[in-house]
Amino acid sequence: MPSRRIWTIPNLITIFRILLTPGFVIAYLDSNFLAAWLLFMVAGISDGLDGFLARVMKQRTEFGAMIDPLADKILLVTSFICLSAQGVVPVWLTVLAVSRDLIIVGGLFLLKFYGVEVEKRIDPLWTSKITTALQLLVIFSVLSGLAFRLDVSFMRPWLEIVTAVFTFISGAIYLRRGLLMFADEVEKGA
Predict the structure, then answer these.
(1) How far is CA 55 from the centre of its chain?
(2) Nearest to 24 by CA among 76, 60, 70, 95
(3) If residue 12 lies in a helix (H) or strand (E), which one and from where to where?
(4) At what angle are helices 126-148 and 91-113 packed, to 10 degrees?
(5) Single pTM value for the model
(6) Neighbours of 184 (CB within 10 A)
(7) Which residue, 120, 128, 115, 114, is CA-closest to 62?
């Protein structure tokens, strides 16, 4: 059972990850692609580290359960918007990724507003974990190409298509789950 504490080492690492995002944007927009790549890598490593430490140190918290996925979404959405604004990632993929995240976050807030205890009823999907990994891989491959002048164009179209498919599927599954939770809540109230 997660605790209500906020100031734990894993949560501080997650907050640090959120604070890296503006640095990433500044570095990327200044065409300092190596710095952008480094900040993105540090953010990615911190994402794994905070979850690992939360389990090992038995510091899983309600705050961490809410802020960790939000931190991921802030970094991913910001990265996709930056990359597509510069024409490096297709706009359609950015719209799909951002729309999925807005639907998930908006749905969670809506369910919470209607009194649904989402923390107890929602678990990350394996499709969602794959989606996040694929989205990170798209961004990583683009940033690696820019930072190190690598030609990764041979794999990008396939990676983008697979990422889009998983993004759509996981978004649809979350939408269905949210609608079912909402229907359950309406039934309870009736």
Answers:
(1) 20
(2) 76
(3) helix 9-29
(4) 140
(5) 0.89
(6) 12
(7) 120
Give phi and psi for 123, each to the nearest 5.
-120, 150
In sequence order, the β-bridge partners of residue 3 are 61
Torsion angles phi and psi, residue 153, rounded to 5: -65, -25
Q: Please give the structure tokens belonging to residue 141.
A: 């491959």
Two tokens at 8? 């734990």
Question: What is the distance between the alpha carbons of residues 74 and 17, in angstroms, rounded to a whole number?
Answer: 9
pLDDT tens, residue by residue, 102-141: 998 899 888 888 888 877 666 778 898 899 999 999 999 9
Q: Answer whether residue 2 shows pLDDT above 80.
A: no
What is the rounded distance in angstroms from the CA atom of residue 20 to the CA atom of residue 125?
26
Contacts of 10 (CB under 8 A, 6+ apart): 49, 50, 51, 53, 54, 57, 59, 60, 61, 64
Q: Are 147 and 115 in contact (CB under 8 A)?
A: no
DSSP string, 129-161: HHHHHHHHHHHHHHHHHHHHT---TTTHHHHHH
